[in-house]
Amino acid sequence: MGGGRCNERGTSMKQDLELRSWQARFRDYIELVKGWSQRTREAYCQELKPFFAYLERQGVTQLGRLTRSHLEGYRLELSQLQFQGKPITAKTQQAKLCAVKSFVKFLYRENFLLLDVGTDFEIPSGPKGLPRAILSETEVLRLLETPDTSTVRGLRDRAIVELLYGTGLRNTELRELMLQQLDLSNGVVRIERGKGNKARVLPLGEEAQAWLEEYLQKSRPELARDPEKTWVFLTNWGAQLTRKWLSFRVSQLAKAAGLPKTSTPHVLRHSCATHMLRRGAGVRHLQTLLGHSCLNTTQIYTRVEVSDLAKVVRKFHPREAP
Questions:
Q1: 85 Cα distance to chain centroid
Q2: Is 228 helix (H, G, I), strand (E, B) or coil?
Q3: What are phi and psi of 178, to 5 degrees?
Q4: Which domains can be identified in the chain, with CATH numbers?
């Protein structure tokens, strides 16, 4: 009896070591080769844990024995999984299965699996919702004018929100922006490692560039304590901005502006795209501006416009009820 338990424990430890080893190699791959952000890397590795637990329950002690049926079984289990008494959403299932499919493809790429058992493996796709919060142009203007630009920190904050709204930058893209990526003589900023490790060049609007230049001349020298740190935007202590700090600061400014809506860097990005679309910008141009690899992602904003149009029809069409 004791020998059996010992063997089971030894097998479990061996499996755990193998999983940890491949997970570490996968993490290095998506960082160094794929160039994924730290947030995405952590999310993918986190989503692999329940899959490994599922394999253990199925008695799979070696990843080399992974088959398509294991993926199908895991997908079925997720479809029946509940959280707080409710089935988990298709979006949650999608996130978990995308991580698994990427991991399996990596094992095949490393010649650990003879076949990519995840090829053509279907992943449930939940409906892509409309952006939850869009500021009006008037609300954005109130937000932009909120920072006290007579102070070092206020001037920095004004440059931040102007750049977020003027270029549609993501939170991470703005935080990781370096001085050498700015080409102010040509009025552009180079995003060298956007989402999916994709690079793009963005034009700076007149207002964004003006406030950025003023910040660089008057504010940043006061914040910079280490000349070797070349991030464009710095905290009050001269360090790189964190994701949490940037989101909280934009939210604080929105609250100070008296806006009724929750505002984040992502809300400013959504607002930028929506306002440009309303003023006649093409979806293809917006795709380039926002750094979307797929046009379908950008077309979410056309759905925003349709929802606005529906409200107008309901209100003004003679066949609609008053």
A1: 28
A2: coil
A3: -110, 155
A4: 2-109 (1.10.150), 137-313 (1.10.443.10)
Among 36, 33, 51, residue whose Cα is nearest residue 109: 33
Closest CA to 210 of 269, 158, 246, 250: 158
Q: Which tokens is 166 given? A: 């003027």
Look-up of token digits 């020298």: 221
Type of residue at 69: S
Per-residue pLDDT, 157: 97
The alpha carbon of 15 is separated from its chain's Cα centroid by a whole number of angstroms, namely 32
**pLDDT confidence of residue 318:** 45
User: CB neighbours (10 Å) of residue 137?
Assistant: 12
Answer for the pair 137, 145: CB distance below 8 angstroms, yes or no: no
CA angle 21, 194, 41 (to 5 degrees): 20
Q: Which residues are annotated as catalytic?
A: 170, 195, 266, 269, 292, 301
Task: Note the pLDDT tens digit of each residue in 36-70.
Answer: 778 888 889 999 999 999 998 988 878 888 999 99
